[in-house]
Amino acid sequence: xxxxxxxxxxxxxxxxxxxxxxxxxxxxxxxxxxxxxxxxxxxxxxxxxxxxxxxxxxxxxxxxxxxxxxxxxxxxxxxxxxxxxxxxxxxxxxxxxxxxxxxxxxxxxxxxxxxxxxxxxxxxxxxxxxxxxxxxxxxxxxxxxxxxxxxxxxxxxxxxxxxxxxxxxxxxxxxxxxxxxxxxxxxxxxxxxxxxxxxxxxxxxxxxxxxxxxxxxxxxxxxxxxxxxxxxxxxxxxxxxxxxxxxxxxxxxxxxxxxxxxxxxxxxxxxxxxxxxxxxxxxxxxxxxxxxxxxxxxxxxxxxxxxxxxxxxxxxxxxxxxxxxxxxxxxxxxxxxxxxxxxxxxxxxxxxxxxxxxxxxxxxxxxxxxxxxxxxxxxxxxxxxxxxxxxxxxxxxxxxxxxxxxxxxxxxxxxxxxxxxxxxxxxxxxxxxxxxxxxxxxxxxxxxxxxxxxxxxxxxxxxxxxxxxxx
Length: 471
What we know:
Nuclear Transport Factor 2, Chain: A, disordered N terminus, four-stranded antiparallel sheet, 471 residues, 22% strand, alpha+beta, 2 domains, Beta-lactamase, 32% helix
């Protein structure tokens, strides 16, 4: 699943192009847009905050007031004015450091001093009139080198990037520091936190048990977790609904997680904490991303296999795929060659993320890996070494609509500029990664970053959006 859009929307709300590049009509709304852009893109942040207080009816959301978001977004280029009146202007803008398109809407009060009463930026599909150019392989690699050089020089990207064709790397490079305090650079052997990318391993493990006839996608959770505390949930939600984020099982983040985080070491620890919660909605009625749903899948894997989740995934996913640098750690044990996660969330410079360590893995996310290991995983999946062809296709075929494309069984399916790919991303404070396997070609894209999202996903989409049209 690619959750890029959700993550980027926060960033996109926070940075726009300078007034010098904004040929907005000279009416009330246009003048305010020009003034806001000039203040936001200026070098005096205190002056910008003063502008907000003076020129807005009510202060805009936190995203508009976070300098870290502005610094890493790179601003926007105005592409088109769609509509304009004295009270309202609507425009299309594109991110300078990514390919995302947004629709910007600004409305002002009808009377002087025409303060801004609405400022909204929404991510949209890239309009056909601004389609990205497809490149041949040589052009793509050259463009990628330039893009990464620029992003690393601006300290917007630190991590590893690997592009493979037919299973063989055609581009592999690491950028930026793995540990800024110790002056240790990232390399292709550096391990990165994965966040939600672990869900792919959970999906493969689940589908292996389906293939073996030990589990059925249509079965209810209660068929396997017979002692699950909330009997209504257990009797209604199916394995398929857990895999497609349609089970209504909710998330794990919040005050309860923060309070008990260091006590949560097994999948059953999570069930002890959250198992009494009711369903958020009737299973199958809608889509809602659910980390807890994948925790429950981990408990099912343990019940059916008779192994711990971690042992099962190691023996049946990592080892068969040849993944020697992938695993799940604990917060109190150091992991060799693991990058430090750096965040600017709530800060003006990169700081280590020590508040929410991300290397303690669960069936929902949080393990670690390298770019090379993730390519080995992708190759094993494509070559049907982890599942037979039928179950691989079943697992990676999108069936449920979500805000970003389609959900398959533990994988997301997204089309970028005509290139359809399946995979999963991961996002957390100081962590961002993406693995995408493109179906209409034999390209695989792996991007891992030890800085805030959407650093890795922007690179991934840059690559996928420019892949050759035909092979």
